[in-house]
Design goal:
single chain; 609 residues; alpha+beta; 16-stranded mixed beta sheet; globular; aspartic-type endopeptidase activity; glycoprotein; protease; hydrolase
Length: 609
């Protein structure tokens, strides 16, 4: 890869379940050639961002993008089947309640509407270009097109780039109900964020996705070229064959035996499509029946009903909770590509956990109705680095632990965090020590920055069942080691991670409403330098990631209680002063009041001497 542009890497985040999303929007243009970039290393940059959550809980992955000046942050579904990036607009009258506030064009000094022209569909007033996208699960999104600065987070050394995006004015179906704000379109098309960045020459014509495993989730996304692992498996992807990212799948093997189906089955309609916006895998009827029968014949476990009686899921019980042991009960599955290369799938690439029966799993492969397209969703790519090498018209697969991608892949020229120079240029994403723990040692925060909460994930080498009784003790230990009050420590989540436990912790501010920069940097320093002293019964620990979020409370919110108490005290003192003054005046008036000589008054008894 010498002489080629470097990569831009974005972390992916995971969000609410959407198992039926199949993003097949209209495709404006199909290109028979690939763009050729001038190979000038100075003209490109890298960006590192994370993926969050897990496939079963949420159904899709999201990443964080910042749009506008100052930046407005959004959680966007990473979708290789969509060609438009869009977020809810402040003027939207038919948008659901999502994770973040809607985009406010008037609050961005760099926002510009895309003016109406001959090559776009215009709004009713013929002033601004519009977009509309409809999806296979009958949801839709429509709105106007705008252009603004798009930022990729503090872990990126890629400068904010101007890009066209959709400002939603209407959404229906799953898009209306989902927790995520919108979509980040990575498909082929003029409005795709990939195409726009490639046209600017800031990245190579390639991007990658790496999804975490069954119990871990998270992962990373890479925009741009990266060093290729030597044992990566490639499949040809023909942009002329269909506008979607397709591969030349020729067959499926279950436990060493190839399914008795014609290779042409996988070439119907759009062919075999990879779609990160889809949760599971969907096969044409003949392929699904052959796969289902082979799996049921090879799995030596009791078949049980699925978690939802409305669906005829194929589920099995008795496999236990340890994902690393699933290969003892479920067969290995191979995908055969046209050039003879083989992609091996482990059980987590075609199974999902039964939500109601412990130790039970269900097939995450379904029949694609009467559609002849083979659709491979995110489940196929768990713990697999997938490189969409658009320039060379191929897609690569490399089995890896995606939560440890940076250490295992060892990116060439991985960027250091961009410096924080001003309040306007700052975003709330802080570099994660999972990428480079040493980066935090010289890290600083702007003096005006107010830290609202510090979150971090710790992996312990003890099993979840052994850890659960010591939650309170663990909380006290964290508070003691980080030198904060125990009331500030919140354990947000406990997750079983193979033979270990993954814990998400948060440090909240005390009564002041924010954590001082000095205290925040002290906490981060102790975490990243592995200075926590935990007892032996907690096993070994490792820091997975950390993040600093700004305080969202204004000066009035922080000091409101004190202000109210102060006003109340002043009013009470004033009231007491008025009362005392009133009675004093009454008493003074009674003692020295003038009485007429003829005025009658009660006789008073003489007091004894």
């Amino acid at each position: 890869m010498a002489g080629t542009p470097a990569a831009m890497v974005l972390p992916l985040f995971f969000s609410p379940l959407n198992t039926t999303r199949r993003s097949f929007p209209p495709f404006p243009a199909i290109y028979s050639h690939r763009r050729e970039l001038q190979e000038k290393s100075s003209s490109v940059a890298n960006a590192h961002m994370r993926l969050y959550d897990d496939l079963l809980t949420n159904g899709y992955y999201t990443t964080r993008l910042m749009i506008g000046t100052p930046p407005q942050k959004f959680a966007l579904i990473v979708d290789t089947g969509s060609t438009v990036t869009y977020v809810p607009c402040s003027s939207c009258e038919q948008c659901g309640n999502h994770q973040d506030p809607r985009f406010q064009p008037d609050m961005s000094s760099t926002y510009e509407p895309v003016r109406c022209r001959t090559d776009c569909t215009c709004d009713a007033d013929d002033k601004q270009c519009t977009y509309e996208r409809q999806y296979a699960e009958m949801s839709s999104s429509s709105g106007v097109l705008g252009e603004d600065l798009v930022s990729f987070g503090i872990e990126s050394d890629l400068e904010p780039q101007r890009a066209v995006f959709g400002c939603e004015t209407s959404e229906t179906g799953d898009l209306f109900n989902q927790h995520a704000d919108g979509i980040m379109g990575l498909g082929r098309g003029q409005l795709s964020i990939m195409d726009q960045l490639v046209d600017k020459g800031v990245i190579n014509d390639s991007f990658s996705l790496c999804y975490g495993g069954m119990d871990i989730g998270g992962g990373s996304m890479v925009l741009g070229g990266i060093p290729l692992p030597p044992d990566m498996v490639f499949a040809r992807s023909d942009p002329v064959r269909s506008p979607y990212y397709n591969i030349d799948l020729k067959g499926i093997v279950v436990l060493g035996k190839k399914l008795d189906i014609s290779p042409s089955v996988f070439d119907g309609k759009h062919g075999t499509v990879l779609d990160s916006g889809t949760t599971f895998a969907y096969l044409p009827k003949d392929a699904f029946i052959a796969f289902r029968d082979a799996m049921m014949d090879k799995i030596p476990l009791k078949q049980i009903p699925g978690p939802d009686p409305n669906y005829r899921d194929i589920c099995f019980s008795g496999a236990g909770s340890d994902v690393s042991q699933l290969s003892k009960f479920f067969p290995e599955v191979d995908m055969l590509f046209g050039d003879g290369q083989i992609l091996k799938l482990s059980p987590e690439n075609y199974l999902f956990r039964h939500s109601k029966v412990h130790g039970a799993y269900c097939l995450g492969v379904f029949q694609n109705g009467n559609d002849l397209t083979t659709l491979l969703g995110g489940i196929i790519a768990r713990n697999t680095l997938v490189i969409y090498d658009r320039r060379n018209e191929r897609i690569g697969f490399w089995k890896t632990n995606c939560s440890e991608l940076w250490e295992r892949l060892k990116f060439i020229g991985a960027p250091s965090p961009a410096p924080l120079t001003s309040e306007n240029s700052y975003t709330s994403e802080i570099p994660s020590p999972a990428l480079s723990p040493s980066q935090a040692q010289n890290y600083s925060l702007p003096a005006q920055y107010r830290v609202g909460v510090i979150t971090f994930d710790i992996s312990l080498s003890v099993e979840y069942s052994d850890m659960e009784p010591y939650v309170k003790e663990f909380t006290e230990l964290i508070a003691n080691e980080l030198e904060v009050d125990i009331s500030q420590v919140h354990l947000m989540n406990f997750t079983s991670a193979g033979n270990g436990t993954l814990i998400k912790c948060a440090i909240f501010p005390s009564r002041s409403g924010f954590i001082s920069n000095k205290a925040a940097l002290g906490i981060i320093s102790r975490l990243t330098e592995h200075r926590l002293q935990l007892p032996a019964n907690f096993g070994d620990y490792s820091l997975v990631e950390w993040n600093i979020e700004p305080s969202k409370r204004s000066w009035w919110q922080v000091h409101l209680l004190g202000f109210v108490i102060g006003v109340a005290i002043v009013m009470m003192i004033s009231f007491l002063v008025v009362v005392v003054w009133y009675f004093w005046r009454q008493k003074l008036g009674a003692a020295g009041a003038y009485r007429h000589v003829d005025t009658a008054f009660a006789e008073q008894e003489l007091q004894p001497l």
